[in-house]
Amino acid sequence: MQRLSLTLRQDNVPLDLISLIKTILAATKEISFRVSQAHMSGLMGSTLDENIQGEIQKKLDVVANELFKDILLESGFVKAISSEEEDTSVAGNAVGKYIVSFDPLDGSSNIDINSLIGTIFSIHEAPEHMDANNPDMFKQSGDKQVCLGYVLYGPATMLVMTTGSGTHFYVLDRTHGGYLLVHRNVKIPEDTQEFAINMSNQRFWQEPMQNYIGDLIAGEAGVRDKNFNMRWIAAMVGDIHRVLSRGGIFTYPTDSKNPNQPHKLRLMYEANPMSFLIEQAGGLAMTTTGRIMDIEPTSIHQRVEVIMGSKNEVETCLSYFK
Ligand code: AFP
User: Where would I find the Fructose-1-6-bisphosphatase class 1 C-terminal domain in this sequence (predicted)?
Assistant: First the structure.
């Protein structure tokens, strides 16, 4: 099995970007270790604080965020970082070539039940003309990401990453401490019989989404003429990993549950990096009005509706909105 650094060299990734990727991966190895030790080191449960998103932070969220942030800022490779857990961006090296957005622990509600969680990261080039303190540096579309991925802390710690030359799966080999390539150029089947959505929000969805999901549930007895299976991990990293591994459609649609917040998922920390991985694997990543990665962000904590996965199924879903 090939080591990660060899894959990166084969894909002609610039040396300074390889150094940054290695820095990020060093942080994920440390987080993976901390997650495995959390029960024994008093890191289960919540803090009394809320993050900028108004969500109660878990102790591990805070630890993972501090770790990731410190390692990146100390590296000198980054001009600034932006985290789901920080109020605004944090300045790094004024001449750093890159900026990094990340969700240090996606799926926090799974922490206390020892279920799937992960770290998501996204790298853009830093605009040279902007000050390191300026959060506007992060207002770049998903298309401009130069490297992104996630690390899934599951039965195996897995890295799924792309630098624009295909989506690849790696697994952390604890004997030598590095990530090894296990699947190059993952491809998502175009058709699927599996969907992922939080069904408890059904009554809050727009009518076209109600109709679409209704037809999936009707299965063979309905217009789709085939049965569908449903899965919901409550961690986008886990649900997208399944879609990348065997196909499926994943959606967190617009809803009216909280009128001030029609969307749940974050554009920069969740939707954009996952969209790039899905598209590189031959799938589609859309909102009901266009491609997710075409969106020009207006704020760093922006939220967005998400419909992604197997190409033909995403197109079928979108046809209900026409
Ligand atoms: P947290 O990381 O704040 O727990 O949120 C996870 C998430 O943003 C995403 O990973 C899941 O797909 C989604 O929320 C789960 O949402 P529900 O709470 O509706 O299940």
Answer: 188-320
Tell me the per-residue pLDDT of 94-133, one tens digit each, with 9 for 90 and over: 999 999 999 999 999 999 999 999 999 999 999 999 999 9
CATH superfamily of this structure's domain 4-183 = Fructose-1,6-Bisphosphatase, subunit A, domain 1 (3.30.540.10)
Q: What whole-number distance in Å separates Cα of residue 64 and Cα of residue 44?
A: 13
DSSP secondary structure string, 2-62?
A: -BHHHHHHHTT--HHHHHHHHHHHHHHHHHHHHHHHGGGGT--SEEEEE-TTS-EEEHHHH
- CA 127 – ligand 1 centroid, Å: 31
Q: Which atom of ligand 1 is found nearest the CA of 61?
A: 2
Name the helix (H) or strand (E) containing 155. none
Please identify, by atom number, the ligand 1 atom nearest to the C-alpha of residue 265: 8
Give the distance (Å) from ligand 1 centre to CA of residue 274: 14
Task: Give yes or no for residue 106 CB within 6 A of ligand 1.
Answer: yes
Domain boundaries, the chain: 4-183, 194-319
| Residue 16 clears pLDDT 80, i.e. is over it | yes
